[in-house]
Amino acid sequence: MANQSTPDQLFEIRNSFYIGNYQHCINEAQNLKHFLNSQVNDPSIQLERDIFMYRAYIAQNKYGVVINDITSSSAPELQHIKMLAVYLNGDTDKTKEVVNSFEKQIQNIDPEDKILPLVAGLVFCLEEDYDSALRLLHKSDNLECRALTIQIYLKMNRIDLAQKELNSLKEIDEDCTLTQMSQAWVNLQKSGDKLQDAYYTFQELTDKYATTPLLLNSQAAALFALGKFEEAQPVLQEALDKDPNSPDTLANMVVATQHIGKTHEVSKRYLTQLQHSYSNHPFVKDFHNREQEFVRLSKMYSPVASS
């Protein structure tokens, strides 16, 4: 939704969402709602405010709030947000329904609808259908669509294409927080001074706006890439203090504690919490696949008992 014509009233809401300050995003959206209802009658501002507010609820895993609040009479853009909440809520049958519904809807996208490409693109990305996601995202000039495109290219290890997309993003709005974060994501995939630049970018955003688990985990990722696991551990502990149930923090804590020589019990505790609460997290899936592969190889090379 973000673009250069977005009213100033939404900056705090939009920026808070980008840096992962989700409760502040919700609080500001609710405060703005009272102001708009009493003094401003601009449906576009009201709609964008609601979109970011409900996306913040989704980021907090409060899917029920979104599903219950958004009704059949709500705007089409909010219906897309509701479908994202249904998808992430975890019901397998409903997840398939959401994917099928988006596959049909994208056949005839309203050019004015800036949310459908973003949300459907995100769902396709989570489904690891990167080709469909990219084809859809390239149809939109939304800054968030471009940022998601960069993330997908990085997942595909196509740093060259990610850099090209980043250059386009800079031409649109070089100073936007989303652009700065995208630059840091790309730098994380490089080496040398670029890794340090990524760390400084996340640190500057923290100093300028707020300390959030998202930015702290991003700093930790940069420290991991620099081989500074001892320095990353307290950063992650701060993130864990802010949100004890953050799946990314738990996953990164497993990595950090393993590298700095903590006891197996410490790492296992974080891993167990992650597996119990977020069974579909990529880290958990990858760990499970590696466990199965280890068992398979162990059986293949185990000595055959003599008769």
UniProtKB/TrEMBL annotation:
The coatomer is a cytosolic protein complex that binds to dilysine motifs and reversibly associates with Golgi non-clathrin-coated vesicles, which further mediate biosynthetic protein transport from the ER, via the Golgi up to the trans Golgi network. The coatomer complex is required for budding from Golgi membranes, and is essential for the retrograde Golgi-to-ER transport of dilysine-tagged proteins. TPR repeats lie at residues 213-246. The keyword Electron transport does not apply. The keyword Transmembrane does not apply. This is Coatomer subunit epsilon. One of its GO terms (cellular component) is Golgi membrane. GO terms for biological process: endoplasmic reticulum to Golgi vesicle-mediated transport; intra-Golgi vesicle-mediated transport; protein transport; retrograde vesicle-mediated transport, Golgi to endoplasmic reticulum. One of its GO terms (molecular function) is structural molecule activity. Gene3D superfamilies: Tetratricopeptide repeat domain. PROSITE patterns: TPR. Transmembrane segments: none annotated. Belongs to the COPE family. The gene is COPE. It is a peripheral membrane protein. Oligomeric complex that consists of at least the alpha, beta, beta', gamma, delta, epsilon and zeta subunits. Keywords: Cytoplasm, Cytoplasmic vesicle, ER-Golgi transport, Golgi apparatus, Membrane, Protein transport, TPR repeat, Transport. It is found in: Cytoplasmic vesicle, COPI-coated vesicle membrane; Golgi apparatus membrane. Pfam families: Coatomer_E. InterPro entries: Coatomer_esu (IPR006822), TPR-like_helical_dom_sf (IPR011990), TPR_rpt (IPR019734). It comes from the Eukaryota.
